[in-house]
Amino acid sequence: MSNDARPPSDLPAADAELAEAVEQRNLERVQSAIRAGANVNRAIRDQTTNPEVTCSLLHIACRRDFADIARELIQAGADASSRVVSGPTEGETPLIAACRSGQRMAVQELIRAGVDVNYSMRLNGTALANAAAMGHAAIVDDLLRAGANPADPANAKMCEWVFQNDQLEIGMTLANAGAPYNAEKALCLAADANKFEIVHDLLQRGTNPNVKNRYGRTILQELCGGPCDAGYIDVVVALVRAGAEDVDDKAVDFTAQAGRLDVLKELMERKASKQRYLIAYVSAAAAGQVHVIRWLLSKNRNPGALLRALYMAAFADKLEVTAVHNLSFPIVELLLQHGANPNATMSTSTMTLLHYAYDA
Predict the structure, then answer these.
(1) Residue 123: its pLDDT value, please?
(2) Minimal CA–CA distance to 113: which of 81, 155, 160?
(3) What is the pLDDT of residue 21?
(4) What is the pTM assigned to this prediction?
(5) DSSP H or E stretch at residue 53
(6) How far is it, in rounded angstroms, from Cα 147 to Cα 220?
(7) Domain tally for the chain?
């Protein structure tokens, strides 16, 4: 590449015409300038995108996805492996420029031209790492098909960057292609983002479902520790079935609220305790999960649990303020039929449920 950082106006006439034609994506003028003997490998400053960068016209065309212009320049002898000679992106090839800016058609033209898809810049890495970091999934696929090596030492941190930037699907594509990655970190991120298919895939590979985050909490504790978000139920189920431990009974609470009796049964089979039944009763009653209450009644009728469930069902909308509501009435009725004491008082009060109903 001829190193000349002069603005286009100071270049030989044919070169200046070619530079302007590339900038304007005027294919006819590009072809005319080439016929007039313009130097297709002359380096100029990229006045539009980054004036600090001295690069080839092919860089400019690829950065802006002028694939037709790129093809014409390559056919006229432009060096498809040329590198930026100065500026913050020194060493960047047209392929890496196209990958960073997401210009897939330009990437495909360069691949067809036979460029080295595994070349790595000293600071910014390979074309594959740049496409992945910027979230360009289709380009990642193109590069892998063209022979990009995700296991190259230059890509050692690639998956970590991608997963940290929430590009989880791309991360798994790279992992499946052989890129090194931290499966436990990926599982934490995928679960937090509610990416069930990725969670399922990682668990199928044997990733530890009990991995803890930097705060010492498991994924199950994080997902089930707050208000019940039923949208996460598939991820919670996958973790439980992969052997995740419900160390503080939060999954019992979560699955009872969500009405997932199948998973609740699994948790109870692992450890059935008075505390777990109490949590399940209260959570199912508050959420109006009649089928869960029926099953609990068939397994355990501890008077304290029945009373707490009755209290929660009667005042589920707004505890101690709102009276019995339509959705929880079947549960109230069911609990009373199975021995819940309507005249009992809560441990913190001398008032019965009837008192609460009248005060509401």
Answers:
(1) 76
(2) 81
(3) 93
(4) 0.74
(5) strand 50-56
(6) 39
(7) 3
